[in-house]
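Exercise: predict the fold of this chain.
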Amino acid sequence: MFNKLTRVIALLAMVFFSTQANAVTYTGPKMDLSKYQPEFRVGFLGDEAAQDIIARNECFMPYIEAAYGVPAKFFTFKDYAGTMESMLGGNLDYTWFGSSGYAGMYLKDPTAVVPVLTRMQPTGDMGYYSVAVATKASGIKSMADLKGKSFGWADPNSTSGFLIPSIELKAMGMDPDTYFSKTQFSGGHENNVLALMNGDVDAAVTWVSGVGSWEEGYSSGNLRKMVDKGILNMDDIVQIWSSKLIPNGPIVMPTFLPVRAHQVMIGMKQWIHENDPKCSENVANGIVKKWVPVDHSFYESVVAARKAKIEAQKNN
């Protein structure tokens, strides 16, 4: 069930954007979704402030309505788990998940949702990175300096904010359960970096494209979003670790929608990228080369990693 805050945000979004529904000249692929349902419901992960999510994606709503011919509704959640459960419960039609979030849903119900497309980095890479950062003032320059200190995770269902770094650090001989004095989940990527800046943890993980200018927070990712919002100065932090390349997370849609709805989404995202690059950049959290169709096979390695993580926790 959506909580009261989520309902209020959705209502405000509907009121605010309803006047803009006819302001977009959209000539991309379309379908009449009203034959199947009365609205198109978009869910967002709770990895930044709800009002920032709504503002950043405001340009997207008129395109959805033009492509599907039904009103669009935006919903935000306080954590990844809420978005996942809502999608599995048939209450959402679109969410951009991290690879681990998709893997978690697949392991619960492999028939409920499908990956539809993901983004390609400006370099042509099809992935991103988990990085650990510390404040420059702390003097911490490497993971070795973190032994016995505190560490922040983003969300238990985050790929780059928990799953991948927890696995890779342990493989490096740094078991998070024993290497750090304490760990905490901060409630999303933005909150995790803010926890670092507030002194609540000595280092924190987040996600970045890994390409582009460090001063700008790379070409895309959470650090880039925070720099663009004016709440982070990259001169104040240092990067002390990076993961291996992680498959870019998928835009996921439910299987109960007709295949044509999936095809329209692919075509619409590509059309927006070509004809409204600013909107595409806002929705993508940064610069992308293009949007690329994907299927389950692209995420099999992450599904296997999440399954192994679950099994290991059961055996402890």
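Check your answer against the key: The chain has two domains: 4-123+249-309, 127-246.
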